[in-house]
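Page header: ASSEMBLY MODEL / two components / 336 residues total.
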Amino acid sequence: MNDSTDPYGIREGEVAVELPKAFDASLYFIGRIRTPWRRREDCPKNARESDAICTIDLDPLFAPGLKGVETCTHVAVLYWMDQARRDLILQKPRHYGEQRGTFALRSPARPNPIALSVARLIRIEGSRLEVVGLDCLDGTPLLDIKPYFASTDAVADAVVGWHKARKS
Amino acid sequence: MNDSTDPYGIREGEVAVELPKAFDASLYFIGRIRTPWRRREDCPKNARESDAICTIDLDPLFAPGLKGVETCTHVAVLYWMDQARRDLILQKPRHYGEQRGTFALRSPARPNPIALSVARLIRIEGSRLEVVGLDCLDGTPLLDIKPYFASTDAVADAVVGWHKARKS
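Prediction written out in full:
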């Protein structure tokens, strides 16, 4: 990859590693996510910044798997950030300006670019779900939908220290 | 696969689909999770059932990516349920007894068997993290570690209706 022409090239403060030569497991794209955002720079910085209703188009093959999902107020959505580079290990996001490790960031650039968003479920019709709380590009591949259990998934007093320090 | 000898064969109330012929993306195993549980039947049913300290052994290649993670009280851990079958679309977990869709369950059996757990971070030493809140088999492959932001990840009043109805 030629960094001088790569729109996702390395920026100052970013460090890449040489990734392993082989993959270890494989994924199916089980649907597509439809959002109002066509360019990276249009996406909200995080999902709570937008009330836009997004659509999850599950492949109809998997539609029977939605039985019972209609009883959930929220779902965890896993999707594939297919445009992200995978070798960045230290990053310096523009809006933070400090170098941090990939695993301390929610950046799409990571060895396995799987994104996680907690979304509020509005409606299910057939194999289509309407949700609020996604922040990805239109057309993003869907990997999984899980019921969100407050008992195990919600930790209201969790703190990301570097982020908190930044704001105070 | 011969179901008569498959320990993970189809049970009554379960329905499988024919999966797509080809995969769409691939994963790196970036570490291994060490837990006290060596057999499926020994694992806690969910992560809040156990206070066991589990160890995440990140591949040292990726250790610089932990910079800043030490400031987090909690992390979202994604891992690969490598022993689960991927074609079940309707399931009837033994401890619930009702048939539900895969996407309404946290069962490891799903088209992309990526598990999500929210874990409390105890300590980081080098490329090793000690956490509480995992429920997987010893040796489970690690896919990702993310900082857990209460602002976007915690929904304390979320409800999984089928589960709530069951308990009341």
